[in-house]
Write a structure and sequence with these properties.
The structure holds 3 protein chains of 3 kinds. By secondary structure, chain B is mainly alpha-helical. Chain B is 76% helix and 0% strand. Chain B contains 11 helices and no strands. Chain C is mainly alpha-helical. Chain C is built from 12 helices and 2 strands. The two termini of chain C are 46 Å apart. The chains are: A alpha/beta, B mainly alpha, C mainly alpha. At the B-C interface, helix 1, helix 3, helix 4, helix 5 and helix 6 of B face helix 1, helix 3, helix 4, helix 5 and helix 7 of C. The complex binds adenosine-5'-diphosphate and magnesium ion.
C-alpha cells in the first residue's frame, strides 16, 4: 500500500522573472524512492530545492502553489529550521564540514539541542551503520572528515542526514562526482535506505533511476511530463517525449 | 638581416635590464636586512629587555618600558580591531553579500588600508587627546585599531569568500541557523586564512610609528597604565635615532633588530600557514 | 529553542552590520573632524593662498603649505622615477625570465620589502644609506651633471645625504613591492594566445612584452602605480629620518626639505598656538584629501583592469 507523504500541487517556481517550473503535480510516497530524471537544465535541482526551501537563501526567488506535508504547505512554513531538520539533503559533491567524523554526523543532533552524550553516540553509530560506513570508520571517529575518500565522505554526509531521522532525504545527483565503485556502494545503500526513510533523488543517469527507484518522474523544460512506477515508465511509457528520452533519441 | 640583428640586440638589452632590476630589488632587501642585523646584533643584551631607559647621556639603560608599552598598546588595539574587522568582513561575505552597501564598504576599506597613518594620528589626537587633556596609551591603541580594522576586514571577506557555497547550503539543509553556519562551518573552513589575516593585521600595526607620535606619545618612565602617555619601541627608536647620543643610537639599532627579526619570523610563519592550507586542498 | 536561534541570529547579524557601519563611519569622521579642526586656518589663509604660500613662520603666525606640498610632491616623483622601471623590470623577470622553481621564492623576497616597517627604512636610510649618498653617490652625480647647464640646478649644494634624493630613493624601495606585485598579476592575466600569436609571427620576447603584454595590462598597471603614489605621498617615518625639516623650497635634489607628513610628525606636539595647530590640521586634511582621491581613482582603474580580463 502506497501512503502519500508529500503532495505537490500546481507548483510554479521563478528565478526573478524567469519561470523555471510549470504547474507541477506529484505525490511522493512514504518509504519509497522517487527518481527525478530529465535532460540537464530542465529544472530537476530547482524542483528538489523547493522541498526544503533552499531557494529562500537567495533573493528574488518566488514559489507558487503548494507542497503539502502533514497537512501544512511547506511553501508557507515560517520555521525553516524546523522544516529542514525533518527534510534532509545530500548534494552533488560531498560536503564534509571541517570537523571530525563524529562531530559531522552529530551536527544535526546538536542543532536540535540533544545534549545527552550517550544518546548522541548511539544515534551517530546507528546513522553510520545505516549509511554502511560504520565498519570503515569506527576506529577513527575523531579524525578529520576531510581525510576520508570521496565516496566515504558522501556516505558520511548521508549518515549526517540520517542521524536526525528525517522523514525524507533529498538527493541531488549524489554519485556524479564519484568513481564507479563508490557509486555502486551508494546505490546499494540507497536501495536499503527506503526501509527507514523516504527518498527523492535527482539523477541524469537513467540506469541509476531504474536500479534504485520505485517511482520515476520525467521532467522536461520545467514541466512534469510523466510520473509512473519506475518499471512501467521504463518499459512502457505513455508519453512520446518520455519514450524518446529513455531511448536516447533526444536532441 | 641587419634589422633582425638589431631587434635581437634590443631584446637582449631589455631582458638584461629586467634581470638587473630584479637583482636591484634583492640588493635593497639584503642591504637593509644585513645593515639592521649587523648593527643591531652587537647592541643586543639582556638589559635591553629588563632595564628601563637611563637618563639622557648616561649609558647602561634598556628599553623594557618601551617593549611593555608597545605590547600593551598593541594588545588593546587588537581587542578593539580584531572583533570589528572580523565581524565587518563577515557581514560583507555573508549576510550582506548581495547588497550594494557591502561593495561600498569593501571598496572604502580597501582605500582605508592605504590612507596615511599619520592622518589617523591627527584624527585621534583631536577626538581623544584634546578632550582628555593628555596623551594616553588608549589613544595610541585606538589609532592602531583604526588602521587594523580595514586590513582584517578585507582579508576576512576574501577568506570567507573562498569557502564554497555548497558547504554552507549543506549546513542550512540540516536546519542550522545562519550564525551557526558561519561559526561552525565557514569560520572553521577559513580558520587558517583568518588566523593569517589577523596575524598580518596585528603585525602591521605593531610596528607603526606615525600614528603614535601624538596619541600615546612617549614616556621616559615605566608604566602599565594606558590612561597616561606611554612609551613605545617605534617612537623611542625615532627619538633616539634623531638624538645626539651614541648610546641612544645603539639602543635604536637594538630595537630595530628585534623588530626586523620579529617581522621576518611572523611573515615566514604566515607564509607557511598559507602554503600548507593550499596544499591540503 | 528555535526562538532562541532566531534571536541569536539577529544579534549576530546586528553585530556584523554595526561593524561594517563603524568602518565606514570612521572614514567619514576623519574627514569631518579634520575639516572642522582646520576651519580656523582655512578662514585665515584661504585655499589657494595656503597652497601657494611658501612662508611657514610660527613666530609671525603666518602659515603657508607650499613648502610641505612641494616636498611631498617632489619626493613622490623621485620615488616613482626609480620605482616604476625597477618594478616593471622585476615583474618582467618574474613572469617571463625566471625559472619556475625560483619564481615563488623570488616574488616572496620582493614582497618581504613591503613587510619591513617604515621605522626600519628610516633607521637604515639615516645610518646606512645617507652616508653612502653623501660620500659617494651625490658627489659622483655632481661631477656628472653640474657641467650640464640645464641639469645644474638639480644638483647644486653641499651633499649631506639628508635630502630630497635620499628620501625619494628610500620611498622608491618601499613602493617597489606594490607596483611589482600588481604588475606581475596583470602580466599573468594576459591570455596565452595573445603572446603566442605574437611569437608565432617571429617577435622577440621583449617585443611581445612591449607590444602585447604591457598594452594589455596598462589599466591595471596604472592603478597599481597610483596606489603606490598614494602610499608615497603619506609615508611619514621613512622620510622623516632623511629629509631634514626645512620649510624652504629648493630646486636642488640634494637639499633638505619637508613633506606634509614630516611637518606633522615634527611639529604637531610642539605647536603652541591655536592657529598653528589648525594649520597643521589643514595640512593633514590636504594630505587626506589627496590620498583618498588618488586611491579612489586607483581602485576604479584596478577594478576596470580586472573586469576586462575576467
Ligand atoms: N540561480 C539561478 N538563477 C537563474 N536561473 C537559474 C538559477 N539556477 C538555475 N537556473 C536555470 O534554471 C534552469 C534549471 O536549472 P536546474 O534546476 O539546475 O536544472 P537541472 O538540475 O535539471 O540540470 C536552467 O535553465 C538554469 O539555467
Ligand atoms: Mg542539477
Amino acid at each position: 500500500m502506497n501512503q502519500v507523504l508529500l503532495s505537490v500541487k500546481d507548483l510554479n517556481f521563478f528565478y526573478g522573472e524567469t519561470q523555471i517550473l510549470h504547474n507541477i503535480d506529484l505525490d511522493i510516497y512514504k518509504n519509497r524512492t522517487t527518481a527525478l530524471i530529465g535532460p540537464s537544465g530542465c529544472g530537476k535541482t530547482t524542483f528538489l530545492r523547493c522541498f526544503n526551501r533552499m531557494h529562500d537563501l537567495y533573493r528574488n526567488n518566488r514559489y507558487e502553489g503548494e507542497i503539502l506535508y502533514k497537512g501544512e504547505n511547506i511553501l508557507k512554513v515560517k520555521d525553516l529550521i524546523e522544516l529542514r531538520s525533518k527534510i534532509g539533503m545530500v548534494f552533488q559533491r560531498p560536503t564534509p564540514f571541517p570537523m571530525s567524523i563524529f562531530d559531522n554526523v552529530a551536527y544535526g543532533l546538536k542543532l536540535k539541542g540533544v545534549k545527552d552524550k550517550k544518546k548522541i553516540r548511539e544515534r551517530v553509530e546507528k546513522a553510520l551503520v545505516g549509511a554502511a560506513l560504520w565498519d570503515e570508520v569506527k576506529d577513527k571517529l575523531y579524525s578529520p572528515a576531510l581525510d576520508l575518500s570521496g565516496g566515504q565522505q558522501q556516505r558520511m554526509v548521508i549518515a549526517r542526514a540520517l542521524a536526525v531521522e528525517p522523514d525524507i532525504i533529498l538527493f541531488d545527483e549524489p554519485t556524479s562526482a564519484l568513481d564507479p565503485i563508490a557509486t555502486s556502494k551508494i546505490e546499494e545503500l540507497l536501495s536499503n535506505l527506503k526501509k527507514i526513510t523516504t527518498i527523492l533523488i535527482v539523477t541524469h543517469n537513467m540506469q541509476q533511476a531504474a536500479r534504485v527507484s520505485d517511482f520515476t518522474a520525467f521532467i522536461y523544460k520545467g514541466h512534469l511530463i510523466e510520473f509512473e512506477e519506475t518499471e512501467k515508465l521504463f518499459t512502457n511509457p505513455k508519453e512520446e517525449l518520455t519514450e524518446r528520452y529513455i531511448t536516447g533519441r533526444f536532441g | 638581416m641587419d634589422r633582425v640583428r638589431k631587434r635581437k640586440l634590443i631584446n637582449k638589452i631589455a631582458l638584461g635590464l629586467s634581470v638587473f632590476a630584479a637583482f636591484l630589488g634583492l640588493f635593497w632587501l639584503v642591504f637593509i636586512i644585513v645593515s639592521v642585523l649587523s648593527k643591531g646584533f652587537s647592541a643586543i643584551n639582556w638589559s635591553l629587555f629588563f632595564k628601563d631607559p637611563a637618563p639622557p647621556g648616561f649609558s647602561g639603560g634598556g628599553l623594557r618600558s618601551a617593549f611593555v608599552g608597545q605590547g600593551i598598546i598593541t594588545i588593546v588595539a587588537s581587542l578593539i580591531g580584531i572583533p570589528i574587522g572580523i565581524m565587518g568582513g563577515t557581514f560583507l561575505a555573508e549576510y550582506g553579500r548581495n547588497f550594494k552597501f557591502s561593495r561600498l564598504v569593501s571598496d572604502i576599506a580597501d582605500i582605508m588600508v592605504s590612507l596615511p597613518s599619520i592622518v589617523v594620528g591627527t584624527f585621534v589626537y583631536s577626538i581623544m587627546v584634546r578632550p582628555m587633556g593628555h596623551f594616553s596609551g588608549y589613544a595610541g591603541a585606538f589609532a592602531l585599531a583604526i588602521i587594523m580594522i580595514p586590513t582584517i576586514l578585507r582579508t576576512t571577506e576574501e577568506m570567507l569568500n573562498l569557502v564554497p557555497w555548497e558547504l554552507r547550503e549543506a549546513a542550512f539543509a540540516l536546519g542550522a541557523p545562519y550564525y551557526k553556519v558561519i561559526k561552525d562551518v565557514v569560520y572553521r573552513s577559513a580558520a587558517a586564512g583568518l588566523f593569517t589575516g589577523v596575524l598580518l593585521g596585528v603585525a602591521r600595526v605593531a610596528t607603526e610609528t606615525a600614528p603614535l607620535l601624538f596619541t600615546s606619545f612617549n614616556n621616559p618612565f615605566f608604566t602599565v597604565n594606558p590612561n597616561q602617555s606611554m612609551p613605545s619601541l617605534t617612537v623611542t627608536i625615532y627619538q633616539y635615532a634623531m638624538g645626539p647620543y651614541e648610546e641612544w643610537h645603539r639602543l635604536a639599532w637594538a630595537a630595530s633588530f628585534v623588530i626586523v627579526v620579529t617581522v621576518l619570523l611572523l611573515s615566514i610563519a604566515g607564509r607557511f600557514i598559507i602554503n600548507r592550507r593550499f596544499s591540503k586542498r | 529553542m528555535d526562538r532562541l536561534y532566531v534571536f541569536k541570529d539577529r544579534l549576530f547579524l546586528t553585530l556584523t552590520v554595526l561593524a561594517s557601519i563603524i568602518t565606514v563611519s570612521i572614514v567619514i569622521a576623519i574627514f569631518v573632524v579634520l575639516l572642522l579642526a582646520s576651519l580656523d586656518a582655512i578662514k585665515h589663509f584661504g585655499v589657494f593662498h595656503f597652497i601657494f604660500s611658501q612662508t611657514w613662520s610660527p613666530h609671525r603666525h603666518i602659515f603657508g603649505g607650499a613648502s610641505s606640498i612641494y616636498g611631498t610632491v617632489m619626493t613622490t616623483i623621485i620615488a616613482l622615477f626609480f620605482a616604476v622601471p625597477t618594478s616593471l623590470g622585476i615583474a618582467v623577470f618574474v613572469t617571463q625570465i625566471c625559472p619556475k622553481s625560483l619564481k615563488g621564492i623570488f616574488s616572496y623576497s620582493v614582497e618581504l620589502l613591503a613587510t619591513i616597517p617604515s621605522i626600519i627604512y628610516g633607521m637604515w636610510g639615516l645610518f646606512s644609506l645617507a652616508p653612502v649618498m653623501r660620500n659617494y653617490i651625490e658627489p659622483a652625480l655632481q661631477r656628472l651633471f653640474l657641467p650640464i647647464p640645464g641639469l645644474k640646478v638639480l644638483f647644486e649644494g653641499t651633499p649631506l645625504g639628508i635630502d630630497l634624493l635620499t628620501s625619494g630613493l628610500v620611498l622608491s624601495i618601499m613602493i617597489i613591492p606594490f607596483i611589482a606585485s600588481i604588475a606581475r598579476d596583470n602580466f599573468e592575466l594576459t591570455p596565452k594566445e595573445f603572446s603566442e600569436s605574437a611569437y608565432a609571427m617571429g617577435a622577440t620576447k621583449w617585443e611581445v612584452i612591449k607590444d602585447v603584454i604591457m598594452p594589455y595590462s596598462k589599466v591595471g598597471l596604472l592603478g597599481g602605480i597610483i596606489i603606490a603614489t598614494g602610499r608615497a605621498l603619506g609615508e611619514t617615518m621613512a622620510v622623516a629620518f632623511v629629509l631634514g625639516n626645512d620649510h624652504s623650497i629648493h630646486l636642488s635634489l640634494i637639499e633638505s626639505s619637508t613633506t606634509i607628513a614630516v611637518t606633522l610628525a615634527n611639529e604637531f606636539t610642539e605647536a603652541d598656538s591655536a592657529l598653528y595647530v589648525s594649520s597643521l590640521f589643514y595640512l593633514a586634511f590636504i594630505l587626506l584629501f589627496l590620498s583618498f582621491f588618488l586611491l579612489s581613482v586607483a581602485k576604479f582603474l584596478v577594478k576596470k583592469g580586472v573586469k576586462r580580463h575576467g
